[in-house]
Structure formats: C-alpha cells, structure tokens
Amino acid sequence: MSSSSAAPAAKPPMRDALVAAAFQLFLERGYEQTTVDDIVALAGVGRRSFFRYFPSKEDVVFPDHERCLADMTEFLAGGGEEDEPVRRVCDAARLVLRMYAENPAFSVQRYRLTKKVPGLRAYELSVVWRYERALAAYLRGRFAGQPDGTLRADVIAAAVVAAHNNALRSWLRSDGKGDAGVAVDHALGHVQAAFGRSVHPRPAAPLLGPDLFASGGERSERPDDVVVLVTRRDAPLWRVVQEFESALGRA
Amino acid sequence: MSSSSAAPAAKPPMRDALVAAAFQLFLERGYEQTTVDDIVALAGVGRRSFFRYFPSKEDVVFPDHERCLADMTEFLAGGGEEDEPVRRVCDAARLVLRMYAENPAFSVQRYRLTKKVPGLRAYELSVVWRYERALAAYLRGRFAGQPDGTLRADVIAAAVVAAHNNALRSWLRSDGKGDAGVAVDHALGHVQAAFGRSVHPRPAAPLLGPDLFASGGERSERPDDVVVLVTRRDAPLWRVVQEFESALGRA
Question: Which stretches are labeled DNA-binding (chains A, B) (predicted)?
Fold first, then answer.
C-alpha cells in the first residue's frame, strides 16, 4: 500500500479513484441509494470512464476478482504432472486469500456491505462459483480417465472453496484481526488431509467389511504406494497385522 | 403424476397452470422475450394471481424449491442424536433429487433453459447456496463444541451439494435417461466414505510424519472407537505395528 515505490502502478489511478469514491458513497448513503452518476461526480470523471473499468455498479464492489481469476487460471495452467493435484488447488485458493489480505480494511468494509445488500450477495455467489469451476476444471483434467474423475474433481473443488471461505469469513467477521493466512492454511490442511494423495480413502473398495478395511489408497499418479487402514480401536493386534499384510498382497 | 388419486392436490391448479404457460412461452419465444403479462394471458388469470404464487419471473422457473427447502429443513430438524450426521445430510440432499426425478421432462427442459439464461443461472446459484446453508446449519449444530466444528460442517455440506449436483447434472445432460437415484447414491457414497464416521481422517494430528501416521479418527459422537492408519506400502511391518500401538496409547 506504499505510494513511494518506484515500480509502475499495476492499477490505473482512475480505476482506484472510482473504487474509492464508490465505497465512500456506499458507506455514507447506502449501496442502493448510490448511482453511477454519484460515483463519477465524486471521482471527477465521466460516466464512460466508469464503464470502461466496470460493466456495472456491482463490479466496482469486487474490483479485483477478474484479475484474481485470471491469476488463478494461469497458476493452475502452469503446474506440471509432478504437482499433487489437491495441493495445487489449495495453493490456487490461497491467491484469493492474498487478494483479501492485501487490504484488510477494504475487505472488511466490503464484507459488511455485501452482507447487507442481496444483489451483492448474489453477485458474490457467482464469483465464488467461477473460482470453484476454475479449480474443478483443473482437477478434471488431472483426474481425466480415472474412475469417478469428474465427481472427485467437483467434490474436492467445492471442499477447497468451502474451507477457504470458512476461514476467510471468520477473519472478516473479526474485522481483519489476526493472521488470515494461518487460518486459511489450517482450513485447507483439513481438505488436503481428507482428499490429498496420502489419505484419500477409496470408497468403492471396502475390502474387509465396514469396520476394518484396507484399500489401495489414492488412485492418481502413484496408485500403489499408500495403504489406508481403518480399524476399530479395540481390534486385536493380530487382526490388524493380518489385514495389513492382506491389503499389501503379502499374505 | 396420476390425477386419479383421491388425495387432495398438494399444489393449487392455478399455480400449475401458470408454470405450464410460462414454460410453453419460454420454449417458444425464449425466456427474456416472455413477460409476466404474456404468461398470465396464456394461463387466463390476472397479474395479481401470478404474484400471489411467484415473487418474480425467475421464481416460476423453480416452482418447487421453496417447498423442497422447507421439507429439507423439517427433515433435518426431525433427526436425533443417534443419526450419523453425514448420512443425515446425504439423505436430506436426496430430497432435492426426488423433486427433480418426479418430473424428468420438466427438469430437463428447465436445465436447458437455465444453461442459456444468465439471470436464471444466478438465481439457481442462490437456491443451491440456500440448500448448502441448510445442510451446514444442521452439521454445525451436530458438531457444536467440537474442534473445527464449523469448518467441518461447511466443508461436508459443500461436498454433499457438489456430489449431488455432479450426479444430477449428468442425469439432466443425458435427457433424464437412466436411474438418477443410483447415480446420486454413488456420488453421495463417495462423500460418506470421505467424511462419514468410520473413515474420517484427523487432519490436525499427523502424529507420525507425512507418510506414516495414525490419528484418533472421527471426533463426533464416538470419538475413540476408530483408528485411521495411513502408511507407505513399502513400510516395514514392525514400524506399522509400532505406530498402531502408539496411536492406541498402548505403547
């Protein structure tokens, strides 16, 4: 947020001025009561300038999502076969967090505004949907040809978005206090644990019954290196060993 | 869909007539080109009758979601402590599927319409969001006081909705052919396997490092009865036994 940097500004000043004027008016008068004419008058520019940057009044509330969506798509496209897919989409989701955390005061203001205005809530849902579809499209590509590939892709994308937003919204509700990054890392860790390569259970193959079974683990790039064993705590050790050996094909 | 039943009709005939007239016009002229006046003229009723049943033109496209949301909320509220929470939300999601499957031709028509009209897509996103929040609210109640309770609730609700919609949309894309129930059961089974009581891994406690760890398993009603052991396939047996014992607190 420093203005003394020698680097060229990434965002045109007029665009920033329009966002600042819009939020000043939204907070003073309310969102519905503010027109585009009011915004351009305060910013000292013409209507055409507004619409050059923002297709509608809703868009000025979320001025950075298009850039963030483009960054996310580029980040996902830049990955290779060696990237663990669930980790990659979690890292992609962190780009959204970074955008919010760049300017906590603005993000908290917008959060309060969005909660109050149903039209903005609907707009936000459509933005969240686009992030989710970007993550799902990447995962669908990575899981192509695998059993339940599109299902797994859609479920994991939704889980990543939900975890990210759970942490993000807690942070916004706390007025941007605390470290949003730590909270989001914790939430995304939950999803990685549930779906990432090492601990993804294989639902279709409860080889050993409902309470005690082993599976071949994750079926993606390295299908054979992990075994997930779920067992009752009171199972006798000999039985656990037997099932483990059996799952490995050693018995 | 039988009209010979002696039971009283659940939906008023005028409401059905408005939905039928609306869809006839949407398909003939397009959604945007059809006004509420056109719809009421074809149905032979006044504008006031339309708005008695539907707040807006969008609502006539999704005439049964309000009832379904109410049914879902009632179903969730009717559950007891003995219900496994993830299974309960999966069963709640099946109420939505049932609504679509009741009338495949109408559901397929609407799916095609929704894909073409951005305003309807936005409306549908807001409906999906309300289902997701109903499921999440139930899970937050069930997980109250547990570590990461709201996070787990939000992630599972999102995963259930994504799995349900993955199967539902495949069915709609196939023009309503095949058994939607079987497809949705399979998709929800995936979520239950990932998050249900028996196989929910405990992300926050990778006690034994990234490749070989044990955890206390699911932390809901019966926190201590399941152990999830994730191990490399090439791990020596002595190490697996050691870690299992250690996870049980026996060692």
Answer: 35-54
- How near does any CA of chain B get to the CA of A34, in Å? 23
CA dist A199 and A21 (Å) reads 49
pLDDT in tens, B4-32: 444 555 566 899 899 999 999 998 898 99
In a domain, A111, yes or no: yes
Number of domains in chain A: 3
DSSP string covering B29-46: H-STT--HHHHHHHHT--
Residue A134 in any domain: the answer is yes
SS3 A45: coil
ipTM of the complex: 0.74
Q: Taking each helix axis from N to C terminus, what angle separates A118-142 and A65-77, rounded to the nearest 10 degrees? A: 10
Sign, CA torsion A39/A41/A43/A47 = positive
Amino acid at site A219: R
Give the residue on A whose Cα is nearest the Cα of B215. Answer: A230
Q: Name which of B163, B194, B233 is nearest A227 (Cβ-Cβ).
A: B233
> How wide is the angle at C-alpha A132 spanned by C-alphas A127 and A135, nearest 5°?
130
Closest approach of chain A CAs to the CA of B5, in angstroms? 39
What pLDDT does A27 receive? 87
